[in-house]
Amino acid sequence: MAVPRHVACVMDGNGRWAAQRSLPRTAGHEAAEAAVMDVIEAARSAGVTWLSLYAFSTENWRRPAGEVALLMRLVRRAIRKHAPVLHARGVRCRFLGMTDPRIPAPLVQDITDLMTLTRDNRRMTLTVAFDHGGRRDIVQAARSLIRSATPADQVTEASFAEHLPYPDTPDVDLVIRTSGEQRISNFMLWQVAYAEWVFPQVLWPDFRAAHFSECLDAYLRRQRRFGGLHRPTTMSGDGPR
Ligand code: IPE
Ligand code: IPE
Ligand code: MG
Asked: What is the 178 CA–ligand 3 centroid distance (Å)?
């Protein structure tokens, strides 16, 4: 099997990483940055062309205000620090979600600037799921479809998907969820329909390029069948029959 085109990571375990060191949870979030940068580079050099990272869910607003505020500050700091190198490495950056008015305006501005700076890059597309909820995306797509007045009998999976945010995003091939948790947590629900999943025990702040490679190796050992018998290469089944 070929290198996965689209890898998505649920970056979990920051709080437990900090607790193991008797540090506040926020220290775990701070330590996550090194893992993020390592994985972006590992994915890029492995030839993965789409990488999605789950950074903040619509449910994460339930966390204490101080933790939420720190997460917002850290994302802003990381963007300011790493924008030039991401751009130099040909990474197109996008943010998926981002509808809540509680996101601080200066952060929205920095995110917009990063997306504008990198929009013509093609080596890899990095999608940061931030204030993201898979169900919300599907509901927004339904609203957009209704506004388009498409006749009901013309609604297909393909035409529905055109109304999702970033409709050019290919289906996810591999999801990596760190920390041993085994659940979807409302992540890219439409796009993960036929993804392979791996659940490394390692906590996200400890996750490095070598762990990423192990996940790719596990993926390469899988046999994807998409419901058939003869290994078509995509969910739409355009491989050998
Ligand atoms: C993931 O780590 C980061 C975010 C959800 C923002 P957690 O903060 O969920 O860490 P645990 O699961 O409590 O260890
Ligand atoms: C999912 O992790 C969201 C992110 C990694 C950003 P959580 O830690 O918030 O998920 P649950 O609460 O364990 O499902
Ligand atoms: Mg968690």
From this structure: 9
Ligand nearest to the CA of 32: 1
Q: Which CATH class is domain 6-220?
A: alpha beta
pLDDT score recorded for residue 232: 64
123 known ligand binder: no
The CA distance from 38 to 45, in Å, is 11
Sign (positive or negative) of CA dihedral 17, 22, 23, 25:
positive
Give the residue whose CA is nearest to atom 2 of ligand 2.
12
Could you list which residues have their CB under 5 Å from ion ligand 3?
A: 12
Angle at CA 213, nearest 5°, toward 20 and 27?
25
pTM tops 0.70, yes or no: yes
Bridge partner residues of 125 (DSSP): 50, 92
Least Cα distance to 56 among 185, 157, 214 occurs for 185
Report pLDDT digits (tens) over 46-84: 999 999 999 999 999 999 999 999 999 999 999 999 999
Q: What lines the ligand 1 site, CB under 6 Å? A: 11-16, 56, 60, 71, 179
Strand-pair partners of 126: 51, 93
Distance 13 CA to ligand 1 centre (A): 5
pLDDT along the chain (241 residues), means of 10: 96 98 98 98 98 98 98 98 98 98 98 98 98 98 97 97 98 98 98 98 98 98 91 62 33
